Amino acid sequence: MQKTCEECGEKIVGRTDKKYCSDYCRNAYHNRINKDSSNLIRNTNNSLRKNYRILQELNPSGKTSVPKSKLLSKGFDFELFTSIYTTKTGNQYFFVYDQGYLKLENEFFALVKKN
Questions:
Q1: CA distance 31 to 42
Q2: Which of 10, 15, 18, 32 is the residue whose CA sits 20 to 30 A from 2?
Q3: Hey, where are the domains in the chain?
Q4: Beta strand pairing status for 83-86 and 63-67?
Q5: What is the dihedral sign for C-alpha 60, 62, 68, 74?
């Protein structure tokens, strides 16, 4: 039985377990399958990346505090985060991957980095 490329349908020559006729077809197939399927997913991922970069920029040492106004001036979106960690004392840290923040008094936020 002759196998054909999953991307372009051309005849495959070589190993019996090959699925694509070339690296180009393999890459094209996976790029097509893995592309963000909707604007919502793409925009959410872009916003999460932006939040991550802001936290990383403002917290180079791994632990600091900043006013809320500084986060907002850089375009930080408090609605988007990847996880919440609640401490034994009830404090809630919001994380964007390994960069987190905790609301403090007087409109300040503690920025931390997970080890």
A1: 14
A2: 32
A3: 1-35, 39-113
A4: unpaired
A5: positive
